[in-house]
Amino acid sequence: MRSMRTILKAGLGLALSVSVTFLAYAEEGVPATTRSTATGVFTQKQAERGAEVYRQSCSDGCHLSSLLGEGKAKPLVGDTFREHWHGKTLAELYGHVSVKMPQDLPGTLSDEEYLSAVVYLLSKNGSPSGETPLPGDSETLATIEIAAAPAGE
């Protein structure tokens, strides 16, 4: 019985320690990820709009209509994309795309167009669509982690 109490106390102490650490980060303004792109965080309609934005703004340039890239432009689908973005947040991906793309005219698309383009990239990398549209506010995007899609998708 005594060893069971010791185990319970140790487990409770560990749980409390993890909770305090989480709260400390939350208090410092570091958002905790609460969802992942594997859970359907955008709609199919958003992905379709993103395909059109990509076609109009990106496919004729460096990344090509295949999203495989050319020259210095890295592929936007497959292992290269997954390895780079897995574990990062949608806020990070959105920030990168909205500041650096299109390469010849960075920052020239609307917020909604950038969000749609990000959704399109997610869909082309195997992230499933869902029932609820992805909101474009930075607070929400910071809470969604980019999940690795299965290889071959």
Explain how this protein is built:
Helix content is 50%, strand content 3%. The protein has 153 residues and is an all-alpha fold. The chain folds into two domains: 1-30; 32-145, Cytochrome c-like domain (Cytochrome Bc1 Complex, Chain D, domain 2, Orthogonal Bundle). The chain has a two-stranded parallel sheet with strand order 1-2. The longest helix has 26 residues, at 2-27. Residues 2-27 have low confidence and may be disordered.
Question: Quick gist of this model?
Answer:
By secondary structure, the protein is mainly α. It contains six helices and two strands; from the N terminus they run H-E-H-H-H-H-H-E. It has a two-stranded parallel sheet with strand order 1-2.
Q: So how many helices? A: 6
- SSE run: HEHHHHHE
Distance separating the two termini: 52 Å
Q: How many β-strand stretches?
A: 2
Q: What's the CATH C level of the largest domain?
A: Mainly Alpha
Oligomer: single chain
Largest sheet features? 2 strands, parallel
How large is the radius of gyration? 19 Å
Instruction: Please estimate the helix content.
Output: 40-55%
